[in-house]
């Protein structure tokens, strides 16, 4: 492989790493704006002791707006998550071509032990040895990924708004 080609791959690898960082930052920066607003809405309306039909409709309107915002964040974040995965995939391809291992290692430890065993079946003896050494050093790593985290958080907040609407309905009517 020519030095020029190797340099181009390393530059692409660096660019993919920067893209992952940018997208991850974007996901959590937008969350850091949306989540406090949602929590403030819960606090404002959840602690209220007055239950009038007018207030109920204000809560419903606020909840619909908040749920819309949360689902929009989830959908955008999911799109950015997919872009991150494309970058990670390309980084692993470049590592394969250049004989690098960092992303291959991180990908291996983030999957379940069952998937690790399946992957090991299709590897060369050298690769098996490397991954088995890594596995003996780090053990099983509990994993909750970005997508699962986004789904759980969004679901909890949406359920919270629905519960708040139901509570207000029961107390008002």
Keywords:
about 170 residues; mainly alpha
Plain-language structure description:
With 173 residues, this protein is mainly α. The chain has one domain (3-172). 86% of the residues lie in helices and 0% in strands. Helix 1 (3-46) packs antiparallel against helix 2, helix 1 runs parallel beside helix 6 (146-172) and helix 2 runs antiparallel to helix 6 (146-172). It is elongated.
In short:
The chain contains six helices and no strands. With 173 residues, the chain is an all-alpha fold.
* Overall number of domains: 1
Secondary-structure class: mainly alpha
Counted beta strands: 0
Which segments are poorly predicted (pLDDT under 50) over 5 or more consecutive residues? none
Helix content: over 70%
Mean of the pLDDT scores?
A: 93
Count up the helices. 6
Q: What percent strand?
A: under 5%
Shape: elongated
**Amino- and carboxy-terminal Cα gap:** 75 Å
Radius of gyration: 23 Å
Mind summarizing the main beta sheet? none
Secondary-structure element sequence?
HHHHHH
